[in-house]
């Protein structure tokens, strides 16, 4: 095994509303297995999102003070079901719709009820900093 330095990539697209705040998109690039779903589908999604942006310097201070959301796309495409993991306060519209839609994979349970049960993921470190995650 060879130890090597790898690079992280950061890009910025300034928004028209709250341009001093940040929405973060993230994905890991390593996989325990072949990785077609996790992380390769997320890598493909991020590359497509980032292809029109310029490379910028990393700014760790701004991440903590300006980040308003982190979108985790390491499993951007996976199976026939509906999967979402988030903090409940992120988007009231999504929450209300999910409360009204029955989960096709769990009889008598709404999408919201299964979603609210939560679980671990790459967003846990952002949750620990109280950054809303979807």
Automatic annotation (TrEMBL):
Offer one Pfam family short name for this entry. Answer: Peptidase_M28
- InterPro entries for this protein: Peptidase_M28, Peptidase_M28B
> EC top class, in one word?
hydrolase
Please give the coiled-coil regions recorded for this protein.
Answer: none
Q: Name all Peptidase M28 domain ranges.
A: 8-53
Q: Could you say which EC number(s) this protein's record lists?
A: 3.4.17.21
Keywords tagged on the record? Carboxypeptidase, Hydrolase, Protease
* GO MF entries: metallocarboxypeptidase activity
Mark the transmembrane ranges.
Answer: none
Q: Which PANTHER family match?
A: GLUTAMATE CARBOXYPEPTIDASE AMP1-RELATED, N-ACETYLATED-ALPHA-LINKED ACIDIC DIPEPTIDASE
Name this polypeptide is given: Glutamate carboxypeptidase 2
Its taxonomic placement starts with: Eukaryota, Viridiplantae, Streptophyta, Embryophyta, Tracheophyta
